UniProtKB/TrEMBL annotation, chain A:
Keywords: Electron transport, Iron, Iron-sulfur, Metal-binding, Transport. GO terms for molecular function: iron-sulfur cluster binding; metal ion binding. The keyword Aminoacyl-tRNA synthetase does not apply. PANTHER family: FERREDOXIN (PTHR36923). The lineage of its organism: unclassified sequences, metagenomes, ecological metagenomes. Gene3D superfamilies: 3.30.70.20. InterPro entries: Fe-S_cluster_ET (IPR051269). This is Unannotated protein.
UniProtKB/TrEMBL annotation, chain B:
It comes from freshwater metagenome. PANTHER family: APOPTOSIS-INDUCING FACTOR 1, RIESKE DOMAIN-CONTAINING PROTEIN-RELATED. One of its GO terms (cellular component) is cytoplasm. Keywords: FAD, Flavoprotein, Oxidoreductase. This is Unannotated protein. It holds the Pfam family Pyr_redox_2. One of its GO terms (molecular function) is oxidoreductase activity, acting on NAD(P)H. The lineage of its organism: unclassified sequences, metagenomes, ecological metagenomes. Its cofactor is FAD. Residues 4-299 form the FAD/NAD(P)-binding domain.
Amino acid sequence: MTIKIDVDMSKCQHYGQCVFEAPNIFRLNNDDKLEYVAEADDSERANVEAAIDVCPMQAIFIVEK
Amino acid sequence: MTKPVVIVGASMGGLRAAEALRRFGYAGPITAIGEEPYAPYNRPPLSKEVLAKEVSHEAVAFAQRPATEDVNWILGTRAVSADLEHHTVTDSTGQVHPYSALIIATGLRPKRLQVNNSELAGRHAVRTLDDAIALRAELVPGARVVILGAGFIGCEVAATARKLGCDVTVVAPGIHPIVRPLGVELAREIQRRHEAEGVRFKMKTSVSDLIGETKISAVLLDTGEELACDVFIEAIGSDTNTEWLDGTGLDLSDGVLTDNAMRAVKTNGNVTEDVFAIGDVARFANPLFDGVARRVEHWNIPTDTAKRVGQVLAAKLNEAENWPAVLDETFAPMPSFWSDQFEMHILAFGLLALADEVKLIHGEIEGDCVFGYYRDSKMIGVCGIGLRSTVQGYRAQVGTQS
Ligand SMILES: Cc1cc2nc3c(=O)[nH]c(=O)nc-3n(C[C@H](O)[C@H](O)[C@H](O)COP(=O)(O)OP(=O)(O)OC[C@H]3O[C@@H](n4cnc5c(N)ncnc54)[C@H](O)[C@@H]3O)c2cc1C
Ligand code: SF4
C-alpha cells in the first residue's frame, strides 16, 4: 500500500513545519524551498497526517485513491 | 446511553481534540459546541493573505477528516454555564448536555479600548472570520487606517492594509513594534522595514479618545495630537473566554490552569479528573522551560495540547492498558510561531519573551538574519527573518529541562 501526497504550492509558504513531523517526506532545500516525495509507503500516513495538522497554510493533502 | 465527550469551542483546538480522541482509539460520542456559525477554520490568514485576497469561509476552513464525521457539531450556540458536580454544560438555547468528559477550548477575544466615545462606528478588531470580512470591506485604497497596538497582529494588519493601498499609522505605547518578545534590535529593524514601505508609527503613546459624529473621523492621542481616521483597528491583546466557567471552582486567574495532562485545576489545588483545557485558553507549565504556568498564544499549541488530551482521555475512557501510566509521560510542546509582513518571513521557536539576552547569531540585521534568545545563558528561543533552514537547525537546542 502506498499513499499519494500533494502540496498546493500556490499556498505553501515554505515554513517547513511539516519537516519535523514527516522528515522522510518533506525537506527544505538549500534555497529554503519545500521539496517533498509525492508517493510513500502507507506506514508514513500517520506522519503525513501530523504534517497536515501543523501546516500553517493547510497546503498538504493525502490524495485518496 | 453513553454520555458524550463535550468539547466547548469549535475552532482549531476543538477540532483537533475530536480528531485526537479518534486517533487514540476513542469511538464513543463527541459533541462540540461553538459560538461561531462556522465549522472550524484557520485564523492566521485573517490578518495576512485572506485579508488581502478573498475573505470567505471556504478559503480558510480546515479539511474535515472521515474519522470525525460523526461528531455532533452544535454551531452558532454558546455554552453559558457548566456544572462540574453533575457533569453537565448548559448552552444558550437552554439545552443541558451531560458529559463523560469536558474539553474547554474557548480561546480568546480581543481586548477593546474603553474611552468616552466608545460607541462610535468604524471600530474593528481581528479575531474571527466575520471581523475579517467587515474589515476587508473598508480597506480601500486611500483609506486612512489607524491601528492601535503593535504586536504581531497589529503589524500584520498594517502590512496588509498598506499593500492594499491604505494610508496606515500604527499607534502603540512601546518603544518599537513587537518589542516584548523580539527584543529591541530586531524590533527596531522591523519598524524600519515597515517605515520603508510607508507605514507610519506613533510610538510611546496611545489613543485617549475617538472623535466623530456617528462614525470615527479622527482619533485623539495621549500627546494631544489628532489623527484623521476612516478605519480604526484595535489590536491591543486579548481576554480569555472563561466567564461561562465562573462559579465552578476552577482556577481561572488567567485562562484555565491545567496540569501536565491538560486536566483543569481548581483554586483549592485539586486536579479535576474529567475536565480538560486546550489551546489559547489553557495555562500550563512547560517542562521545556520551567515550572511556571503560562498561556501560549501560538498556533501549534491547540494541536499539541489537543493531542495530549486525546491520548490521556482515550486511555481513560477506554480503560486502556496504559491508563493511568500515560499521565506520567512528560508533555513538553515546542512553541512555534511565524509571521508574514511585507517581504519579511519571520519564523520562531521557543518562548522568546523569557530571554534576558538576545543576540544576532547569523546573517546581517539589514537582510536575512537569525537571533538567539537566552535565559541564564541557555537558549530558550530562536527567531529569524528568512533563513528558515538555519532557524530550524536550532530548534533542537531550544529549551532545557529545568
Ligand atoms: C488574526 C490572527 C492571526 C494569527 N496569526 C498567527 C500566526 O501567524 N502564527 C501563530 O502561531 N499564531 C497566530 N494566531 C494565533 C492562533 O490563531 C491561535 O493560537 C489559535 O487560533 C487558537 O486556537 P484555539 O482553538 O485555542 O482558540 P480560538 O481559535 O480562539 O477558538 C475558540 C472558539 O471558541 C468559541 N467560544 C468562545 N466562548 C465560547 C462559549 N462560551 N461557548 C461556545 N463557544 C465559545 C469562539 O467563538 C471560538 O470559535 C493568530 C490569531 C489571530 C486571531
Ligand atoms: S508546513 Fe505547509 S507551508 Fe510549510 S513548508 Fe510544509 S507544506 Fe509548505
